[in-house]
Amino acid sequence: MKKIKCLSLCSGGLDSILAIKILEKNGIRVQPISFVSYFFDAEAAKRACKQLGIKLRIEDISEKHLRIVKNPKHGHGNAYNPCIDCHKMMLIETKRIMNKEGYDFIATGEVIGQRPMSQNRNALELIEKKAGLKGKIIRPLSLKLLPEIEAEKRGLINREGFYDISGRSRTIQIELAKEFGIKDYPSPAGGCILTENNYGKILSNLFRIKPNANGNDCLIVRRGRVFFEGNVLIVVARNHEECTALELLMKRGDIVLKPDFPGPTVIVRSFTKNPKEELIEKGIEYILKYSKNVPDDFAIELVK
Q1: 0.85 cut: is pTM over it?
Q2: DSSP letter string over the chain?
């Protein structure tokens, strides 16, 4: 008999780990898939799949995702998170792979009622319909609470082997983790960085000043304290890691300054034509402001 196989969206969280284990328990060959963009990576998914002994497939959707973040058809959430449009895009990308490579269906670790914006019944039905996947997605943790799907009609799965979990409590999932011998899994998180209010405000200002902001712009505002002065962006590193990151992210026209005393690297990026001397002075001002002990005799390097 043909081995049933599916693509399972994997974030690396407990729910997506359990979805994989439940599918495997039902005799299905699972290929975990994770997406990366300017706003999230696949590190948690990598750790989860290493624990499970399964190779993770990673797809880069950075540019497509950035366009959605700027202009989501279904709007943003409480911060700058376009959860419905983002999830729909991931499913469309997964569907493309499913159709091209002969997978039988798609699985997710979604739990009914766990996330108010993207995991209520109406949102799930809307996303399925818009992605052209109505009845083609299996949600192992909540399948018994949902309408019959195509895989059941085709006799590929039997819902008795799945679950009826709903709501935000993780009690049942934690018990299942024990049953499956899963010991290492992350604590519940609010979502990607786009769900953080402060980062949402920063992006809103960035896109207002520079509507065609690119991935590099979105990345540098994650690497320190962020300030806007007119059409000038200033980012002040908070630690050694961010100092290094700002240097790596600098591009032509940027002013990057490093003090010869313990203090932050600063990047100054202008979205209009400003005198170079003015931008350097602005950068020095922020270095001195966020340095604790400035010596009487000091130098500041202009990184080239």
Answers
A1: yes
A2: -PPPEEEEE--SSHHHHHHHHHHHHTT-EEEEEEEE-SS--SHHHHHHHHHHT-PPEEEE-HHHHHHHHHS-TT---SSS--HHHHHHHHHHHHHHHHHHHT-SEEE----BTSSTTTSSHHHHHHHHHHTT-TT-EE-TTTGGGS---HHHHTTS--GGGS---BSS--HHHHHHHHHHT----PPP---SGGG-HHHHHHHHHHHHH-TT--HHHHHHTTSSEEEEETTEEEEE--SHHHHHHHHHH--TT-EEEEESSS---EEEEESS---HHHHHHHHHHHHHHT-S---SS--EEEE-
The per-residue pLDDT for 187 is 82
> Which residue intervals of the chain bear CATH 3.40.50.620?
5-180
The CATH code of domain 5-180 reads 3.40.50.620
List pLDDT tens digits, range 153-191: 999 999 999 999 999 899 999 999 999 999 889 887 667
